[in-house]
Amino acid sequence: MGALEAVILTIITASTPLLLAAIGELVTERSGVLNLGVEGMMIMGAVCGFAIAYTTGSPLLGVGAGLLGGVGMSLLFAFLTQTLMTSQVATGLSLTLLGLGLSGLIGESFTGLPGIKLNAIDIPFLTDIPFIGPILFGQDILVYFSFALVAIVTYVLFRTRTGLIINAVGGNHHSAHALGYDVVKVRYACIAFGGACSGLAGAYLSLAYTPQWIENMSSGRGWIALALVVFSSWLPRRVLIGAYLFGTVWIMGLYVQAMGVAIPAQLLSSLPYLVTIVALVMISGNKTLTRINTPACIGQPFAPER
Amino acid sequence: MKRLIGLTAVALAMVLAIGVPHAAEKLKVGFIYVGPIGDHGWSYQHDQGRLAIEKELGDKVETVYVEKVSEGPDAERAIERLARQGAGLIFTTSFGFMNPTLKVAERFPNVKFEHATGFKRSKNVATYNARFYEGRYIIGQAAAKVSKSGVAGYIASFPIPEVVMGINAFILGAQTVNPDFKLKVVWVNSWFDPGKEADAAKVLIGQGADIITQHTDSTAPLQIAGEKGVHGFGQASDMIKFAPKAQLTSIVDNWAPYYVARTKEVLNGTWKSEDTWGGLSAGTVEMAPYANVADDIVKAAKETEAKIRSGALHPFTGPLQKQDGTEFLAAGKVVDDGTLASMNFYVKGVDGKLPQ
Q1: Is 0.90 exceeded by the ipTM?
Q2: CATH superfamily of the domain spanning B133-252+287-341
Q3: CATH class, B22-130 region
Q4: Model-level pTM greater than 0.90?
Q5: What is the torsion angle, in degrees rounded to the nearest 10, for the CA atoms of residue A158, residue A159, residue A163 and residue A164?
Q6: How close A210 gets to chain B, by Cα (Å)?
């Protein structure tokens, strides 16, 4: 395996969980809800995914369980913020804490067990093509799914009626309500979608990235995903760019170190954050575009008048 | 954000860990862990030591612990909480807890503190560490024998003396077998980040390393080694379960004898502040059963182990040069503990520059 090929493969693995979680959170935020609990939903996805994969022996069932784990957490968030009208910021933060604690509890009996890896697909001949084969045709399903998701979300948000409704609810919930849309229901659905994506990101961590369950294994990736959404000014294709830029600089930092280049390791560690933020701010230079895409109602509670 | 999470996690953990007030006569022994017990590495082994105290001393003691305490200001609060809850002996088990431990110790002169891997002591703060470098010398030798590419990858956490001496010991061991052995070091600036550790392992393997070793706490690098068909070494505890085909051996931290002994000293009033640095001979450092290697390599490793144990061999014996070629230890001399404990340079043979 060539060095470049190895690097690209590593970048894909490092970027996929960020992309999955960020694209889900993007949809949630588009509907006007700020869910800071991405980290908590991700870690729950990781533990549920691992637990089911380990118990049943099927990594695919694990992926499904991870998704459901994320959805479960997000529905709790939705119930609290949409039905009980709690503060989104505070609830999101507690969701993260709850997720970290609860996953530790659930995962207690699963720590220290060797995991089951979600295997990469293997298409005869295609996967065997040197260089291109393993990169294009040798990934696991979640990697392909993350790309498909970017395309689907872009299409739905900007080309369909559903997308219009989501954007309307996020842009001005009073108007959307007046037009007869059920704001709360739409938000419930978007929150659940965000939870599903975070759950998948978590399952990716415990089934593909490092196939094992370790407490706290998301190590802040949920927060990076949250930041990606904001800095990409709520545009799916920019989330894709941001996630891969982050992954690339992150891996290159490690790569450069291993080469023995004399750049301080601390600088290399902080570089992904710097580069990603600077790059996304720069491509967000078009202020009108940014303003149009910022959900105006983000974080604001909405109580339908009866 | 992360700080906030850490803080609240600490608060939560304490509520969970401390629980109900205790009966007066029992000695309460407190532990502060930097990682989750479930890391199956550093913090896990400390917790094994805690369990050993409970097993050995039964109803004379009561133990409490707080896990996942981040290094820094949060640590001070967590330690103080334990002291306030009536702990008579507190073990703080990470380098970064050094200053917080000393600060709290000043306010609680009657509580005994034990700080792992640090170098600052006071009347009621003792320090202890293990000579992990002895184990690293042994695995360095084994690595050079097993490696076909002659390149090993080392995943390192923070450039503190403890980690630097480990890297040096590893390459010195390897050089006894293959003087041209290469060591690539990647710093991940974290004690525990499975994903990042795994990435580092992949990058190192991509650059030709066929041996992966680590000074971070998760099992991820070893698992990657197994996946990619190269070899590696466990860290802090026996990690063979995670990489049955990849792990050659593991440097196991066995804190139990020390923890039990110190707790007994507090119970019978003979405890005093001192620095303890046990290694293979004290039983604090153990080598996990060798696997996936030829018998002659195991035999050689065991011989080295025996020599270090008996004191016949010290991994840092001159002549030794720093990375830039200047001599730091004359022929036949053995390094003193002070130099080791403040080691801030690579020896000759390590690739790359040590971050300062």
Answers
A1: no
A2: Response regulator (3.40.50.2300)
A3: alpha beta
A4: no
A5: 90
A6: 6
